[in-house]
Amino acid sequence: MRSRQVGNASLATSVAPATASCDVLLLRDIDFNAVASLLARYRLHLVRVEAGAQIPGSYWGEPEAGVIADAVYARGDTPVHSLLHEAAHLIVLPSDRRAAVHTDATDSIEEEDAVCVLQALLGEALPAVSRDRVHADMDAWGYTFRLGSARAYFEHDATDAWQWLAAHGLIGADRQLS
Fold this sequence. Notes:
The protein is of the alpha+beta class. The protein has helices at residues 32-40, 80-91, 95-98, 109-124, 131-141, 150-157, 159-167; strands at residues 2-6, 11-15, 45-48, 66-68, 71-74. A 3-stranded mixed sheet has the order 3-5-4. It has a two-stranded antiparallel sheet with strand order 1-2.
């Protein structure tokens, strides 16, 4: 396991070495085109990586999603929550910073906190995914939060993240995607 401490939410992101030991929703389990369309709303491109190939721009290594500039790279065995998390990193960035991204997309605790909320909202926007599934998969994958779960963070401990997302025009007053 690899881990890092980020965010005011006391989020420790622990990444499991392989999906074989973890029952999470994978990209191959959902409609690739629906994900690509969602990301296109934010001027991002979803790039399908062939099975067994190295994923460009993956911070944690395979099967985690990778990011380079405006592209999110994923294989069929990439966890959906990982793909959404990495896409959210690009979504929160202004275009000039986005263009410079390769592998590591954030240098801000506030952005990381906002990304954790945004990835669940993106999951809600996809057929066959939901914010509850994203939360469950984050917990199963090893993310840990001060209140004990991703859902508890999202519902009770992410005030700063919600405010950040609203201030940057990514959500409306109803806490839904803009």
